[in-house]
Specification:
Blueprint lengths: L8 H27 L8 E4 L20 E9 L2 E9 L7 E7 L6 H8 L1 H8 L2 E5 L14 H5 L4 H13 L4 E11 L1 H12 L5 E5 L16 E7 L10 E5 L2 E5 L2 H12 L5 E5 L2 E7 L5 E7 L26 H10 L7
Parallel strand pairs: 1-2, 4-5, 4-6, 6-7, 7-8, 8-13
Antiparallel strand pairs: 2-3, 3-5, 9-10, 11-12, 12-13
Length: 338
């Protein structure tokens, strides 16, 4: 067979090279599509590869996160789980991260809509993450709550995996990771702090720790507790209550605060009163703090100037902004390293 004319040979080589590049690009795109699926619009699902450990996150970066709220799927233990994450338009590098844990029978989307944390994210250039409970509940100890407790789901491992996964996608300041929760979510935030050093501080609204729950926090977190004296679901003075199918065994709020002071080596608190709000704050070694905010005459609620009534018809206290107060507490208490 005769060869190509000398003038046509470079053209043939160029065409062959272009074909190889096009085919290669299509194969790469197909492989990427198998590992990442992003639909348009807020709340778009991202299917993640298993997250690397925190020690390898920087060298094995996962696909990033879009501005706004998106939903990420991951596997924790034997269960497929999800979390929503809100990324502000102007994100700090590295950024603080707040886990916001919904209450029993709530959801990630409900927590996002109810508590105003996205406004904090935009204003403070922070990440806010809304993990989804198992069966709309958390295994927070003391047989609470729901399917998560019945199946003994390891929610400490799940929440740790969530922080690792976010950290593998965007730069996270691991000294400024915090957990805020409502009710069963407040209980879970404290359990996370008891069993790991993931969070520097906890904000627990209308929560408790079940009696006899072991709490040996390796990270010695700062803690802000917010409880109403007329709460009929998480009893302020301790005891057992029923909330639908859930049974809640509560430790008295004063005793929970004392437990956190004990594990942090804190002195007795100083107390201030403004209207129905009584604040007992202890300054502890290493720059840590334990604060109990008691709201007299109010119940199972997230205090907010935008509040009206709870789903149970209780009046929400509007003279104290739990979200803003928790953020200010978090910002003042990064991991001390002690």
């Amino acid at each position: 067979m005769r060869g190509l004319p000398r003038s046509a040979a470079p053209v043939a080589v160029f065409v062959l090279v272009m074909l190889v590049l096009v085919v290669g690009a299509r194969l790469v795109e197909r492989h990427r599509a198998q590992n990442l699926r992003v639909a348009s619009g807020p709340g778009s699902p991202i299917t993640a590869s298993p997250p690397p450990s925190s020690s390898t996150a920087d060298s094995a970066r996962l696909p990033g996160l879009p501005v706004g709220t998106s939903t990420v799927r991951l596997t924790s233990g034997a269960h497929a789980r999800t979390y929503a994450v809100h990324v502000p338009a102007d994100l700090s590098d590295p950024a603080p991260l707040v886990l916001v844990l919904h209450g029993g029978f709530g959801s990630a989307s409900q927590a996002e809509q109810s508590y105003g944390w996205n406004d904090v994210a935009e204003r403070e250039h922070a990440l806010v993450v809304y993990p989804e409970g198992f069966g709309r509940a958390w295994n927070s100890g003391g047989d609470c709550c729901g399917a998560a407790a019945r199946e003994d789901v390891d929610d400490v491992a799940f929440l740790t995996a969530v922080v690792d996964d976010v950290s593998a996608r965007v730069p996270v300041d691991r000294t400024r990771v915090y957990a805020a929760g409502m009710s069963n979510g407040a209980m879970m935030a404290q359990r996370l702090a008891c069993a790991s050093d993931v969070v520097a501080a906890v904000g627990a609204v209308a929560g408790t720790i079940a009696p006899d729950t072991p709490c040996r926090p390796p990270g010695h977190p700062s803690v802000m507790l917010v409880n109403g004296t007329t709460d009929t679901r998480v009893l302020y003075d301790g005891g057992t209550s029923k909330v639908g199918p859930a049974t809640i065994h509560a430790t008295a709020a004063l005793d929970v605060a004392q437990m956190w002071r004990d594990v942090n080596g804190c002195p007795a608190p100083s107390t201030t009163t403004h209207g129905p709000v009584v604040t007992a704050a202890a300054t502890c070694p290493g720059g840590r703090s334990v604060t109990l905010v008691t709201i007299k005459g109010y119940g199972h609620e997230w205090p907010s100037p935008h509040g009206s009534q709870t789903p149970y018809g209780e009046e929400v206290y509007t003279g104290w902004d739990a979200t803003q107060q928790l953020w200010e507490f978090f910002a003042a208490h990064p991991h001390s390293g002690a």
